[in-house]
Design a protein that fits this description.
The chain has 15 helices and 13 strands. The protein is of the alpha/beta class. α3 packs across α11, α6 packs parallel to α7 and α14 packs antiparallel against α15.
Length: about 400
C-alpha cells in the first residue's frame, strides 16, 4: 500500500525567487514599508524561542518599546500577528458582556474597534466624525456626559483615509475624568510623530511592526497601564482568545516561561528596528518624518493634484490624494508599479490613492522617485499636470527646511 494518497497530485511550484519580480518594488503605500538592511539581516536568523538569548531579546524589546511608547509601563507584550491582533487583545481582555465602550469612528480601522467589541458581547456605541475629519474633543465631552462608559477607543491616525486625531491628549483626559479607560491605535503613527502614553493618560496603546517601526510584518506591540492591568484581572472568563489572553502572555513577556512559540525571526527584526529608532532619537525621527511628508505634500500640490484631507486634520504618515475626475486610480497605480517599480495604496471606499510616509519611506530618493512616478501615471491617464513644478516644489522644500534631516 502506498504511504501517500495517489489521488492528491504533487505540486511543482516555482521557487520564491522565480515568483518575486526581478526588480523589487519600492513600497510607498500605507504599509508594509521598506526595512533597513540591519533589520532584514536580523530577521533572517532563527534562535530558540526560550532560553537566555531570547530572554535578552525580550527584555531589550520591552525596554526600547518603553522609550518609543513614552511610558514607564511594565506590562508590554509582543504578539504573533498583525496590529489587529493587538486590537483584539485589548478588546478581548478589557470588555465582556455588561461592559460599555464608546468608539470614535473616522474610517475603516477606527471602526474595527466596534466590530471586535461587539464580538466579545460588550455594549457598543459609535460616535462618528464628519467625512474627512476626526471626532472633535467637544463632541466626545458631550457624549461622555450623556452616559457611563468603561472604555473609549480611537486611532491617533486613520490609515484608511489619512485623518489625524489632533485632540488625542484632550480626549484621553476627558475619558479619564469620565471614569473610562483610553485605548489608542497608533499603528501608522508610532515613531512618526509625538505620542506620550503616560503624559497623555493613555491606558492601552498598540502598533504593528511593519509601518513606522520599519520592521518585518507579523509582530504587534501593546502596552497596558497599571489601571488597565488591574481591570483585566477582573475579567469573569473564559477569555475569548487563548493566544491573546494577556495573563497568559505575561508568562512569556514577564516571567520568561512558555506561552506559545514566539515569532522568533519577527522579534529579532523588531529588536533591531527599535534599536535603530533609539539610535536615531525620537526628536530627530519626528522631524525627519514631518519634513519628508511636508516636502512630498508640496510636490503633490505643486503639480496640481489635490490632497484629500484639510491641512488641520491631515495625517502626515499616510497621505490621501484625490483621484482626478476622468482618471482610473487602479490603472494609475498599476502603471506606477509596472513602469517605475513604485507601489502605492488603493483606498477603502474613497476615491483616493494613499502614499505612506513611515520609517524608511521618508528618505529623499524615495520622495523624488515616487512623486515622478505619480505625476507620470496620472498624465498617462490624460490628466493635465505640471510635473516639473511639482518636482521643483519638492526640491525647494527639502533645500529650505530639511537639510541634514532626510
Amino acid at each position: 500500500m502506498s504511504p501517500v494518497d495517489c489521488n492528491i497530485k504533487r505540486p511543482t511550484p516555482p521557487s520564491i525567487i522565480q515568483v518575486l519580480p526581478a526588480e523589487p518594488l519600492l513600497l510607498m503605500g500605507a504599509g508594509p514599508v521598506p526595512v533597513p538592511a540591519e533589520v532584514a539581516r536580523a530577521g533572517s536568523m532563527v534562535i530558540n524561542h526560550l532560553g537566555d538569548t531570547m530572554n535578552l531579546v525580550v527584555d531589550g524589546v520591552k525596554e526600547m518599546a518603553r522609550y518609543v511608547f513614552q511610558t514607564c509601563d511594565d506590562k508590554i507584550y509582543g504578539i504573533s500577528g498583525p496590529s489587529s491582533a493587538a486590537m483584539e487583545m485589548a478588546m478581548g481582555n478589557l470588555l465582556w458582556p455588561g461592559r460599555k465602550v464608546l468608539v470614535l469612528k473616522m474610517g475603516t480601522f477606527s471602526n474595527r474597534f466596534a466590530e471586535m467589541a461587539a464580538g466579545v458581547g460588550a455594549q457598543v456605541e459609535v460616535l462618528e466624525a464628519a467625512d474627512g475629519q476626526p471626532v472633535p474633543a467637544e463632541l466626545v465631552e458631550k457624549k461622555l456626559a450623556q452616559g457611563q462608559y468603561d472604555v473609549v477607543t480611537t486611532v491617533q491616525g486613520e490609515t484608511s483615509c489619512g485623518v489625524w486625531t489632533r485632540d488625542l491628549p484632550t480626549i484621553a483626559c476627558l475619558a479619564h475624568q469620565a471614569g473610562a479607560l483610553m485605548v489608542v491605535d497608533a499603528v501608522c503613527t508610532l515613531s512618526t510623530m509625538p505620542l506620550k502614553k503616560d503624559e497623555w493618560g493613555i491606558d492601552v496603546v498598540f502598533t504593528g511592526s511593519q509601518k513606522g517601526l520599519s520592521s518585518l510584518p507579523g509582530v504587534a506591540l501593546i502596552a497596558f497601564s497599571d489601571a488597565a492591568w488591574e481591570l483585566l484581572q477582573r475579567h469573569p472568563g473564559p477569555k475569548p482568545h487563548w493566544c491573546l489572553d494577556v495573563t497568559r502572555a505575561q508568562n512569556f513577556w514577564g516571567n520568561h516561561t512558555y506561552h506559545y512559540t514566539a515569532p522568533v525571526t519577527g522579534l529579532l527584526a523588531l529588536y533591531e528596528a527599535l534599536r535603530l529608532i533609539c539610535e536615531e532619537k525620537l526628536e530627530h525621527r519626528f522631524a525627519r518624518h514631518r519634513h519628508s511628508s511636508l516636502a512630498l505634500q508640496a510636490g503633490i500640490a505643486g503639480m496640481g493634484l489635490n490632497l484629500s484631507i484639510a491641512l488641520e486634520h491631515r495625517l502626515n504618515s499616510v497621505l490621501a490624494i484625490d483621484i482626478p475626475t476622468g482618471a482610473d486610480g487602479a490603472r494609475a497605480r498599476r502603471y506606477m508599479a509596472e513602469c517605475f517599480k513604485v507601489q502605492i495604496s488603493e483606498s477603502y471606499g474613497r476615491n483616493i490613492v494613499r502614499i505612506g510616509q513611515m520609517g524608511e519611506q521618508c528618505r529623499s530618493p524615495n520622495l523624488f522617485r515616487t512623486l515622478h512616478a505619480l505625476g507620470v501615471a496620472f498624465t498617462h491617464e490624460g490628466i493635465k499636470l505640471d510635473l516639473s513644478r511639482g518636482m521643483a516644489e519638492l526640491e525647494e522644500y527639502l533645500i529650505q527646511h530639511a537639510a541634514g534631516v532626510l
